[in-house]
User: Which sequence fits this backbone?
C-alpha cells in the first residue's frame, strides 16, 4: 500500500485548486475527493479552528469568515490496516479574502 501512495497522489480531485487566494463574494464550495482506496478521515479548519470533520466538502459564505479573510485547510488521512508504520495524509490550503462591495443608494427625482 505504501508503494501505491508513492506513485499516486492521495486526492483525485480538489476544487477549487488549492494554493491560491480566493475572493469570496457570496458562497464558495470546497471539495476534496481522495482516491477510492480504503477509508479516509477529513478535517476542515478555518484559521486553525475545526469546522467540520468526516465530510469531503464544505461550503463557506461571507458570514462564516470574520475579519475580512482567513486560511482554510483541508486535511485527509488514509486509514488502512495494511499500513501500521506509516500514515498517508495530505493537506490542502486556500487563502480567502472577503470582497466588500460598497453600494450607494441614489434616487433620481
Assistant:
Amino acid at each position: 500500500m505504501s508503494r501505491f501512495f508513492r506513485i499516486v497522489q492521495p486526492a483525485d480531485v480538489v476544487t477549487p485548486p488549492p494554493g491560491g487566494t480566493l475572493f469570496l463574494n457570496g458562497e464558495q464550495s470546497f471539495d476534496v475527493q481522495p482516491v477510492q482506496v480504503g477509508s479516509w478521515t477529513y478535517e476542515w479548519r478555518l484559521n486553525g479552528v475545526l469546522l467540520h470533520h468526516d465530510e469531503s466538502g464544505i461550503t463557506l459564505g461571507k458570514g462564516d469568515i470574520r475579519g475580512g479573510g482567513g486560511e482554510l485547510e483541508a486535511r485527509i488521512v488514509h486509514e488502512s490496516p495494511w499500513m501500521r508504520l506509516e500514515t498517508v495524509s495530505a493537506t490542502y490550503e486556500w487563502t480567502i479574502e472577503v470582497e466588500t462591495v460598497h453600494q450607494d443608494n441614489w434616487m433620481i427625482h
